[in-house]
Amino acid sequence: MPTSELASDHLREALVDRLRSAIGDALVGSHLVAGVDVWVRVRADAWRKAGLALRDQLGMDYFCYLSAIDWMPSPFGRSEDDPTAEATERDDTIRQGYAGGETRFQLLARVVSSSTHVGINIKADVSEDDLTVESWVPVYTGANWHERETWEMFGINFAGHPDLRHMYLPTEFEGFPLRKDFPLLARLVKPWPGIADVEPMPGVSGDDEGGE
């Protein structure tokens, strides 16, 4: 492995250790890929505290993005599958990916140090019984629209957000389109890539199309 990658690994390991020192047992999981990236998982009640530690103690001064993940397998199956194919047994197991997890919904954000160019992916389990975490807007101003979109599309609330309102959907819209159990009617009516009804050529009846 190149020396630069080894150095990066040491740096990432140190970042995880420093975050653990800052927030204690609120850091509940981590996963490091040597020379590539690192993921950490924190408790939802420590979401803002972790953000502050990342910014002020770990030098993560650049906010990349924030969103959510719904790990539940879609109850509608895979809409891109051939609708005429024989159905296969569905696997309803929830698997949360890197750094583990215990809930269907997780928050995911990424921040980077502009001096070292090394970043951290941070996740938090969000309970369906209390889909609320503290806003990162006081920590990273750029999280504003990301939190609005996550609230609108997943139904996760951000306590302390200064302007939590719809960005894309009508105010009266019901449901959360990026949840796996939200029905995409266009896919249910005509699954992708769809089965097209082809009209016969002028002067040719439908019965004549099949040949002999």
CATH architecture tag: 2-Layer Sandwich
Shape type? globular
- The parts where pLDDT drops under 50 for at least 5 residues are 1-7
Under CATH, the topology is which? Beta Polymerase, domain 2
CATH homologous superfamily designation: NADH:ubiquinone oxidoreductase Nqo5 subunit
What's the structural domain tally?
1
- The residue fraction in helices comes out at 10-25%
CATH class: Alpha Beta
Distance between the termini: 65 Å
Largest sheet: 5 strands, mixed
What is the alpha-carbon Rg in Å?
23 Å
How many H/I helical runs? 4
Hey, roughly how much beta strand do the residues contain? 15-25%
Mean pLDDT figure: 84
User: What is the chain-wise order of helices and strands?
Assistant: HEEHEEEEHEH
Biggest sheet: strands side by side, in what order?
1-2-5-4-3
